[in-house]
Amino acid sequence: MAIIRFIREGIDIECKPGENLRELVIREKLQLYGLKGILGNCGGVGQCSTCFVSVEGGAKNSLSPLTSVEEEKLNNRPDNWRLACQTLINSSAVILTKPQSPPSNLKDLKESAESKKLPR
């Protein structure tokens, strides 16, 4: 089992390797989308670019490699951003949902998340 630590939400969620990150977020009723994504997301096929997440920790290969869709859609975005709909979980990772609108206390949230050991 893998653990995905969600920084903004302050929770850890256990999941199976191979699970899709977007499906995990939706199943757990976390908020993945901003207003644009709520009104017009593509349903997980990688076309709307509204399910951004930021990978803040975990092993280098804790998530699947970038897909060709992500390589196109994430051009000019930070290197640690992913599209949740295109991302499969390999092992434990630390994720920030909606990185395009970070919380004002992001530094404190990151420090708290990093202070707890993440299982591999």
TrEMBL record:
Residues 99-120 are annotated as: Disordered. The keyword Iron-sulfur applies. Pfam families: Fer2 (PF00111). Keywords: 2Fe-2S, Iron, Iron-sulfur, Metal-binding. CDD domains: fer2. Coiled coil: none annotated. Its cofactor is [2Fe-2S] cluster. Residues 107-120 have a biased composition (Basic and acidic residues). GO terms for biological process: P450-containing electron transport chain. It comes from the Bacteria. One of its GO terms (molecular function) is electron transfer activity. The keyword Iron applies. Residues 2-101 form the 2Fe-2S ferredoxin-type domain. Belongs to the adrenodoxin/putidaredoxin family. This is Possible ferredoxin.
